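User: Just a sanity check before I run the rest of the batch. Below are the structure tokens for the first item. I only need the designed sequence back.
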């Protein structure tokens, strides 16, 4: 293993827990996301700059942006299904893909988590039809909650919490299977739920 690979691996170890909090500050310039572990220690930082139709999000170890951990990049400008590749920094290896299921998202938001060979390994599904009906009727500020499913079994949850100062996403993972999901893929999902999914909600899916 090269020195670069070794350093990237060491930094990625901070992202192997079972609980993360992603905080988005509304009063900062641009959208800034602080990724914290269960002890509320900063383990990642991301600033959204141009993720609109085509773009990428880059996740660093801190606000100084000296060390990049991984990046999320829309695969193809013509891919209207919304497929995003999660790439390991340094090695440029593909960690996996996140794909928004447009047809199923016509009612409740749903994303597929894919491995580097684009095989389905899990899904994230919005879990409240009642809340979605209320949003349709005008209560847009109701928080979102997504269940994480693997082989039909719940393995975690991603919950949104709204406040005056900014939105927070709490990611809790309970997967006890042998196929442990890469935390970078799950953190990427939480970031995209805010950076991408909420935009789709505002324009009516």
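Assistant: Here's the designed sequence for the first item:
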């Amino acid at each position: 293993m090269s020195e670069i690979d070794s350093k990237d691996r060491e930094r990625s170890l901070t992202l192997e827990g079972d609980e993360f909090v992603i905080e988005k500050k509304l009063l900062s310039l641009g959208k800034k996301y602080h990724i914290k572990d269960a002890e509320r220690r900063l383990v990642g930082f991301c600033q959204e700059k141009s993720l609109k139709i085509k773009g990428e999000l880059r996740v660093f170890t801190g606000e100084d942006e000296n060390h990049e951990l991984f990046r999320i990049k829309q695969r193809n400008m013509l891919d209207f299904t919304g497929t995003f590749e999660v790439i390991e920094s340094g090695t440029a290896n593909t960690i996996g893909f996140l794909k928004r299921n447009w047809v199923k998202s016509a009612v409740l938001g749903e994303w597929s988590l894919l491995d580097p060979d684009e095989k389905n390994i899990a899904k994230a599904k919005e879990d409240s039809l009642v809340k979605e009906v209320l949003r349709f009727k005008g209560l847009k500020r109701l928080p979102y909650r997504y269940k994480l499913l693997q082989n039909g079994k719940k393995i975690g949850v991603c919950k949104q919490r709204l406040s005056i100062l900014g939105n927070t996403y709490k990611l809790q993972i309970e997967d006890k299977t042998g196929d442990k999901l890469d935390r970078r893929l799950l953190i990427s999902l939480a970031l995209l739920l805010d950076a991408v999914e909420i935009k789709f909600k505002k324009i009516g899916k």
